[in-house]
Amino acid sequence: MASGDNKKVALITGINGQDGSYLAEFLLNKGYEVHGIIRRASTFNTHRIDHLHADPYAHKGGKLHLHYEIYNLAAQSHVKVSFDLSEYTAEVDAVGTLRILDAIRTCGLANYSKFYQASTSELYGDVKETPQNENTPFNPQSPYACAKLYAYWIVKNYRDAYNMFACNGILFNHESPRRGETFVTRKITREVAKIHLGLNECLTLGKLDSKRDWGHAKDYVEAMWLMLQQEKPDDFVISTGETHSVKEFVQESFKCVGKEIVWKGEGVNEVGVEKDTGMVRVKVDPKYFRPTDVGFLLGDATKAKEKFGWSPKVTFLELVREMVQSDIELMKRNPLA
Ligand code: NDP
Ligand code: GDR
């Protein structure tokens, strides 16, 4: 395959396997640019990127540019799941990061590539200082956060030890219509859409008082790219500077479909009731509680703003509306979705 500047490019899946590694060496000696992606699944899992394959112009006419920029986004990213799959989470999120860094180093690419690590506001955990910035101490509260903490430090270590251009993006929660269905925002907007269309009556959640600094994923991926365009590698907080509770997210989502929710009761008996009809729309189920949870997060992205002019464009209410609207359309097309 030829790229815009006529360099030969090879994409090797299973590049870390025996044949893949030989093939990579072979092609590199021939002057190819070699790209590798790993991961197979027994189900269809490309729906978020199918539109990119379908666009012939994405691969032609110089629109595909090649850079040695590695964005390490792969992870077991669900905090609650990490309590059940703690060892697996450490393998993928912690050691997986080390493996990629080591691969870069041992391939002799340490000084020719740029590396982005998907670090997270979960590192702050049970935090005492607010808002959180790049100097706030970490206090992780889950196997996921502990694994990501290892990844954070190994990125810094490889930067110092091998002079690698490696950055930690400490991103606070970011959502979108493409958010995984088991994260709280998407779970809420999907269920609100169903309730609106008469496909369900009530939604069940865990901790309602958790507060998060929620932004839009579209804004946040731009920040990832910007970090790698700077002269020097560094770590940056990316956040909106606003925090909202799960309850507020629920209320705003219901408002999008013309329903007002009021809260009654306490703890596991707390319910969200539709004001006009008295119908219970939200219940609490302790099965969604985590052994330890993060109660409050609020980021300060001043450094990113000052260094490369980043600030979020989409507001909290715009995000909620976009997600609810998108899920209503989805449920109309496919009520079983
Ligand atoms: P998702 O869970 O949507 O995506 C995770 C990706 O990792 C998927 O492509 C998944 O592939 C892949 N993956 C999972 N396990 C493995 C594995 N064992 N080997 C290879 N690939 C694997 O996460 P997000 O897009 O939301 O987040 C991207 C990254 O940013 C993650 O590292 C996350 O921890 C981090 N992060 C996310 C934030 C957020 O609010 N969204 C905030 C801060 C950090 P598959 O589809 O095959 O499972
Ligand atoms: P988080 O996101 O743990 O912040 O991690 P999630 O949406 O899972 O939880 C946010 C808060 O909502 C509470 N909650 C529920 N959460 C889920 N998933 N399901 C529920 O039913 C529910 N009810 C209440 C949670 O207890 C929590 O307090 C996300 C992930 O994307 C990580 O990969 C990323 O690093 C961080 O954001 C920043």
UniProtKB/TrEMBL annotation:
Residues 11-68, 69-323 form the NAD(P)-binding domain. It comes from the Eukaryota. Gene3D superfamilies: NAD(P)-binding Rossmann-like Domain, UDP-galactose 4-epimerase, domain 1. Keywords: Lyase. Its EC number is 4.2.1.47. Its cofactor is NADP(+). Pathway: Nucleotide-sugar biosynthesis; GDP-L-fucose biosynthesis via de novo pathway; GDP-L-fucose from GDP-alpha-D-mannose: step 1/2. The keyword Lipid metabolism does not apply. GO terms for biological process: 'de novo' GDP-L-fucose biosynthetic process. The keyword Lyase applies. Belongs to the NAD(P)-dependent epimerase/dehydratase family. GDP-mannose 4,6-dehydratase subfamily. This is GDP-mannose 4,6-dehydratase. The lineage of its organism: Eukaryota, Metazoa, Ecdysozoa, Arthropoda, Hexapoda.
